């Protein structure tokens, strides 16, 4: 004769929700749907665990005592291996999150660690479930007091949301307001090197070897449109010919996308001067330092709106680096990202956008258009020239 016996789960919900859940209500509210999914998942896990234990038991009779003991083991196992072992404080969760992101670039990991250090200063005891609208307002106020730019704070909030989304996937309790966190960017100047400036850089003479090496990398970056994490890995083994056309084939480090791009004559000329080899590899830090010197020697000195990092600390023994907007000699604003932006901007309107996106690796055309450094007037003029060439 079959018997039925039960044991309590450890799930806790408010009464009104439970009454609707038992009725089989089709929830449309995002927060209620999240709770429902959590309940369904835990009940499924518990059922599978009990059935597996039942299949392994040597007992001829199972009873309520056996079920209770089995459920206790299920929840003990869940506590050791499940969400109870995952940190619920956001500072500790940043470390947990980064351990699962071992394939991310070092620069991206550095950004996450920088934000983690800010959160330690802001509130080291902040819990994941407390990241909502009140957190956003308090964090913005704190960031302003610390003299961080609006765009830096916007980026920080965006990264924090990414970490919270990961915590939700892992089954941790999150504040449903976190999805609504918004903080608009302010428009900033987009610096790029135009065709004439690139020609001046190419022609600059009397460079010591280390600056000539950096100059060649700068030119290569401006005519391949790649990130420094990719172009600084270029070597002759990535080159091949197809129907007489030289191609450069590699996997982009950030996106793990396989790309094949044409080797333009400006890059070919550099390779020919170097017996078919790419320039000597250097660190990101040295590259950023050297290309500023190259651009200064090339006369890239017009006053340009941009941001420079400055130490705002009044204590000579400490640093408080912040990005300060202003008008600076353009060479001072040159960084490793200038090549990718210059390529996209200089060739937009001359080459079909779909081709450019395939080379730069942007996800969408909208993202690409936000990235380039031309205003609407310049884009209109380039479009006109493009149509004229077709006639």
Secondary structure blueprint with pairings:
Blueprint: H1 15-22, H2 30-56, H3 64-81, H4 90-99, H5 106-122, H6 133-145, H7 150-169, H8 195-203, H9 209-222, H10 228-231, E1 239-242, E2 245-251, E3 258-262, H11 265-273, H12 284-297, E4 303-311, E5 321-329, H13 338-347, H14 353-360, H15 365-371, H16 376-390
Antiparallel strand pairs: 1-2, 2-3, 4-5
Helix pairs in contact: 2-3, 4-5, 4-7, 9-12, 9-13
Summarize the structure.
This protein is mainly α and 391 residues long. It has helices spanning 15-22, 30-56, 64-81, 90-99, 106-122, 133-145, 150-169, 195-203, 209-222, 228-231, 265-273, 284-297, 338-347, 353-360, 365-371, 376-390, and strands spanning 239-242, 245-251, 258-262, 303-311, 321-329.
């Amino acid at each position: 004769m079959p018997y039925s016996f039960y044991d309590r789960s450890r799930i806790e919900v408010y009464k009104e929700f439970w009454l609707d859940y038992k009725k089989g209500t089709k929830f449309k509210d995002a927060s209620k749907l999240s709770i429902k999914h959590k309940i369904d998942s835990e009940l499924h896990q518990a059922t599978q665990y009990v059935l597996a234990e039942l299949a392994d038991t040597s007992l001829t009779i199972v009873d309520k005592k056996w079920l209770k003991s089995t459920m206790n083991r299920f929840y003990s196992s869940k506590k050791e291996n499940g969400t109870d072992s995952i940190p619920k404080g956001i500072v500790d969760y940043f470390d947990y999150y980064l351990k699962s992101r071992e394939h991310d670039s070092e620069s991206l990991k550095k950004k996450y660690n920088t934000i983690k250090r800010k959160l330690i200063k802001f509130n080291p005891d902040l819990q994941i479930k407390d990241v909502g609208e009140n957190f956003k307002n308090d964090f913005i106020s704190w960031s302003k007091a610390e003299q961080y730019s609006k765009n830096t704070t916007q980026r920080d909030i965006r990264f924090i949301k990414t970490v919270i989304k990961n915590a939700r996937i892992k089954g941790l309790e999150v504040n449903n307001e976190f999805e609504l966190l918004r903080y608009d960017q302010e428009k900033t100047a987009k610096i790029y090197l135009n065709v004439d400036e690139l020609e001046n850089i190419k022609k600059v003479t009397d460079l010591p070897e280390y600056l000539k090496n950096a100059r060649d990398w700068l030119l290569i970056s401006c005519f391949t449109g790649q990130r420094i994490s990719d172009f600084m890995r270029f070597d002759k083994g990535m080159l091949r010919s197809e129907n007489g056309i030289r191609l450069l084939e590699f996997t982009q480090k950030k996106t793990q996308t396989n790309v094949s791009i044409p080797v333009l004559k400006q890059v070919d000329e550099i390779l020919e001067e170097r017996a078919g080899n790419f320039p000597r590899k250097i660190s990101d830090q040295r590259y950023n330092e050297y290309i500023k010197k190259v651009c200064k020697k090339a006369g890239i000195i017009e006053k340009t709106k941009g941001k420079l990092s400055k130490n705002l600390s009044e204590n000579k023994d400490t640093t408080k680096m912040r990005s300060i907007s202003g008008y600076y000699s353009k060479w001072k604003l040159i960084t490793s990202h200038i090549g990718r932006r210059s390529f996209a901007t200089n060739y937009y309107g001359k080459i079909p956008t779909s081709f450019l996106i395939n080379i730069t690796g942007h996800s969408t055309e909208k993202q690409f258009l936000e990235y380039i450094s031309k205003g609407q007037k310049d884009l209109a003029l380039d479009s006109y020239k493009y149509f004229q060439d077709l006639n």
